[in-house]
Amino acid sequence: MDGRAHAPAAGTILNALANERGAAFAIDLETTAIVSLDGSEDIRGEIDGAPEADTALIERCVELAIEEYGDGVNGQVSGGFVRTESEVPLAAGLKSSSAAANATVLATCAALGVEADPLEACRLGVRAAREVGVTVTGAFDDASASMLGGVTVTDNSADELLANEAVEWDVLVWTPPERAFSADADVESCRKVSPIADVVAELALQGRYGQAMSVNGFAFCGALDFPTGPMLEALPDVEGVSLSGTGPSYVAVGDRHVLADLREEWEIRDGTTWLTTTRTEGARTE
Ligand SMILES: Nc1ncnc2c1ncn2[C@@H]1O[C@H](COP(=O)(O)OP(=O)(O)O)[C@@H](O)[C@H]1O
Ligand SMILES: O=C(O)C1=C[C@@H](OP(=O)(O)O)[C@@H](O)[C@H](O)C1
């Protein structure tokens, strides 16, 4: 019993580490999960190109999805194999963990021959992320953007969707070579910027996403000690620019020509850039 699914990565509008409200947008770079289910005792995970990386998240996603949706298979399925392939690096602030969890839950459902409700499937992946400790708030903001596409604004304390809007933007992403695991982020420092995060949440709920992003970027570069230089290179010509998640990537949105010029500046530094777009379609089964 095999299944395959894809889920997009995402960029940040509001980091939820300050007050548990977050906002994110899906981008056109994706993670694929391939799941094979059988009657074996255990679930084995593999991450393409990252043999040392922790596979607990995707293994727990398969396990929870079998528990939740496996009724019809009458004990024929107890274990299996899951493999992810990703266009974005892990722990770079581009929500690879949310994309991997969504793709894995949907691929498991496909293997079981079940069509899951997208938000239910998304909350299952968030539960797995909490259980294996790869998240601070559960990151329902990132997970819902990846599952539904477009922009989402959420309350991660209740895994509640506050807004979801399809947007068509050009997007520039820069990922430096370093990695920053969300679970290691300085949460106490992020909580200090919660009055600013409240303003960002209001801007996001009014649909003023670009301004929200830029305010978020300055606040969280300060809280997490990332440079504001890449933001100042982008402003004032872009619509919005921010540190994405807990870093180290930055994302900018705006006119494609402006982003192409900005890419030349960001490319002077080490790392990788992508000139891409938002995704209005979220995760999907093949
Ligand atoms: N493509 C992937 N496949 C499987 N697990 C992944 C993948 N990407 C991330 N993860 C899991 O999520 C953890 C990193 O999560 P996090 O620090 O939130 O990074 P990100 O910003 O990329 O989501 C990894 O240690 C790994 O357990
Ligand atoms: O673990 C978490 O609760 C979160 C991690 C951050 O994202 P990254 O995983 O991209 O760093 C942040 O943007 C998000 O709002 C909440």
Question: Which structural class best describes the helix and strand composition?
Answer: alpha+beta
Order of helices and strands: EEEHEHHHEEEHHHHEEHEE
Shape designation: globular
What's the CATH architecture?
A: 2-Layer Sandwich
Distance between the termini: 14 Å
Number of helices: 9
Overall tally of domains = 1
The count of DSSP E runs of length 2 or more, i.e. the number of strands, is 11
What small ligands are held by the chains?
adenosine-5'-diphosphate, shikimate-3-phosphate
The gyration radius over C-alpha positions equals 18 Å
Low-confidence stretches: none
Give a structural overview.
The chain contains nine helices and eleven strands. The chain is an alpha+beta fold and 286 residues long. Strands 1, 2, 3, 4, 5, 6 and 11 form a seven-stranded mixed β-sheet that branches. It is globular. The chain starts with a strand and ends with a strand. Adenosine-5'-diphosphate binds at residues 31, 47, 53-54, 57-58, 84, 86, 90-98, 100, 134, 181-182, 245.
List the helices and strands and how they pair.
Elements: E1 2-14, E2 21-38, E3 43-47, H1 56-69, E4 79-86, H2 96-112, H3 118-132, H4 140-148, E5 151-155, E6 160-165, E7 170-175, H5 187-192, H6 194-205, H7 209-224, H8 229-234, E8 240-243, E9 250-254, H9 256-266, E10 272-277, E11 284-285
Parallel strand pairs: 3-4
Antiparallel strand pairs: 1-2, 1-11, 2-4, 2-5, 5-6, 7-9, 7-10, 8-9
Helix pairs in contact: 1-2, 1-3, 2-3, 2-4, 3-4, 6-7
Q: What is shown here, in short?
A:
The chain has 286 residues and is of the alpha+beta class.
